[in-house]
Amino acid sequence: MILSLLCLLVAELSSAKSPGPVMAIGVALGLCAMITLLVIFGRWVFWPLRPTLGSAEPAEPGVSARTGARVARRPRLVWVVLALPAPRGDRAGRQRPAEQGLLPTKPEAVLGEAVLPRHFPAAEGNRSRSSAGPRPPASSSPPCPPPPGSRRSPR
Length: 155
What we know:
The protein is mainly alpha-helical. It has a domain at about 1-50.
């Protein structure tokens, strides 16, 4: 994982290049801390209980078990209470930043987006077009007859 984060050093975007080594250092420090704690204090730092066959569930008297039991009684209420603030998150009401300013060079897509309004009316490039309209097919063969027992829908 450290090597994959260091691969970000060759990225062209500075917003992707800078956090790579910082995150790699963080992962390396976390790895060193875990190995050190494991050597100094032993296995029980990370795995405090070794379950045996027939032993009691260690989570039964804990806070997690009580919280889970309360949520299980009224899951919809908990879902609604937790979901209400979600739409008003960090980006509520803000516009997206201009993406053209984030790139080091102007790629063809950005240049094409600038040229598009000159050659086509506004929003014409975003419309989808259906080929299943009332027009007859382009071939010269007659249309297939409807299957037996089917009715034509009124137009």
